[in-house]
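2024-03-11 09:14:02 DEBUG pipeline.ingest accepted 1 chain
2024-03-11 09:14:02 DEBUG pipeline.ingest length=434
2024-03-11 09:14:03 DEBUG pipeline.predict start
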Amino acid sequence: MLNHLGLVDALRAFRDGHASPGDYLAACHEAARAHADMAAFTYLAPELSPADGPWAGIPVGVKDIIATADMPTTNGSPVYADHVPAADAWIVARLRALGASVLGKTVSTEFAWRHPGPTHNPWARGHTPGGSSSGSAAAVAAGIVPLALGTQTFGSVIRPAAYCGVVGFKPSYGAIPRLGVHPLAPSLDHVGLFTRSVTDAAFALVHLIGRDDADPHGRPLPGFSVDLDARLAARDAPRLAVVRTAIWDRAEPEQRALLDSAAAAFRAAGAGVSDLELPASFEVLWDCARTILAVEASARFGSLVERCPDRTSQPLKDLVAEGARISAVAYVDALRRQIELRTDLDAVLTGHDAILTLPASGPAPEGLASTGDPAFCVPWTCLGAPAVALPAGASRGLPLGLQLVGAYRNDLALLRTVGWCETVLARPITFPAV
């Protein structure tokens, strides 16, 4: 099916005359309508025509906390039900400049926190797709779009990607400007990507990294290229560090077994695979992240909760109240530890190309009242390190993934390592039935 082409394959098909941008857009739009019961979108664009630019014909799903000037941006909240921003977010403007089309706005939990939306996991209705980037992960998994935008403050790209069986990529902190992205906790917020392959994620990143002086946390990555023919350049067998964190006992048996079997496969293919125990100092990362999140969210949403108690959820109210109880000293100390440990990660990774660990506790839980546990993603998000969710298996008809983490701002090296792992696993890209 035409809409099942990934980003790079679609662009190659356009270039080589094997498919037209207009037909591809139409096929993706039809797929969105066919999957309407999955509730991945809060708003679907009318019929689209290809724009001008190198990405003409590529439809993108945009998480509903990311501003779009021609579509509602509700932030997952009834407070913003009729809100249409005055300008596009930085990343949306970049995509439009490339010629991509916004197919629609994808469901987000309320302000990218815990109160879930209506989206179902495309592999099993009635199971969560994860969150907070619920609709974006589901839309890529279902074959609706080859690329969707998400955000991650705790685990909102990596976890839903693992639950939905797609590649999720959280670049290094500051790699993609967040202008026009509604903040939850600016010291932790990242813009991330959902794609069907590691090459697609790398190709997208090449075109979407940048800097804007209005984003004080921006740190553009060193330049690199990924072209349509060479794709992501091959690398030699990597050196992988298997990390079983302090919350390992929260992982389900099938998720642990998947990590062990993948590690064995990588070792058999020539990778250096060894266990790595993080220094005890890293065990504060969960507490640091929670402190930073609660304080910054409280400052951001405190007045909103006070003004609109009937239109804000209990999870948001609880987070605001939690942050208000934390002292300034504790908050500043958490920020200090965050920066120190980010620097320490480079030393921890000496002799290794990437960390191999878990993206979630197991497959997507049943029910839509929760989006699952983000804890396996939290330390790497707090550090701002690049991370990738890689589809690697299944349990009970639901996807299972791996998480690979690299050193801060070494995104290309991480992507090349994950690309090697993807090749070894050789898992075909599959799609759920409509």
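2024-03-11 09:14:41 DEBUG pipeline.report The longest helix spans residues 285-307.
2024-03-11 09:14:41 DEBUG pipeline.predict end
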